[in-house]
Amino acid sequence: MGYWSIPLEMITFLIFTDSCIYWIHRGLHHRLVYSTLHKPHHAYKVTTPFASHAFHPVDGFSQSFPYHLYPILFPMHKYLYLFFFVFVNFWTVSIHDGCFRVPDLLKPFINGSAHHTDHHLYYNYNYGQFFTFWDRLGGSFRDPSSYANNGPLDQILDETKMEEFTRKRLDFAEESLSLIQNPVKDLKSARKR
To answer: Does the UniProt entry include the keyword Transmembrane helix (predicted)?
Structure first.
């Protein structure tokens, strides 16, 4: 085919692999295989780059299989195959890095880190690899909570929640100190409560 076919190969590769991985990933969440094959990856509720490659060998093989199947079924330039081998690894790390930088125009279409973080938090949403198309079609799409300022980091940094948390810690510390200073009297009053 020649170099002119490279743009077509790129598009069809992304569409083919995104479709296959959506269904494989969704299948890995089936109750009969989830706890054995895919749950180790979900030990990371809040994703990190390390989580991107922390998986059961069968899970890793099955989700990487479409990348190697494509050039068997369709012609693909060898350098493009090598490019995608590297790109897919970078993409996999990027959707686990907690950095939600996707241009506003592309947020409805790109399955970025925000989508995948919610996948780790809520399990049955956002299975796609690159795009949100299959999640929308399969009824598993969920708008990322971080886009509504309600993601895990937003909840941690929420000032009112932090103030409440700090107040509770101070109250606990004061009660603990009081028990240490006057254990018998405070123990009797604590029992009355």
So the answer is: yes
Neighbour-count burial of 103, counting CB atoms closer than 10 A to its CB (0-12 exposed, 13-18 middle, 19+ buried): exposed
CB-CB contact of 50 with 92 (8 Å): no
> Rounded distance, CA 190 to CA 182, Å?
12
Only one residue has tokens 């006057």, namely 182
Q: How far apart are CA 186 and CA 193, in angstroms?
A: 11
The predicted model scores a pTM of 0.77
Provide the residue count of the chain: 193
Structural contact between residues 116 and 41, judged by C-beta atoms closer than 8 angstroms: no
- Contact predicate 126/19, CB 8 Å: no
| DSSP-assigned beta bridge partners for residue 110 | 131
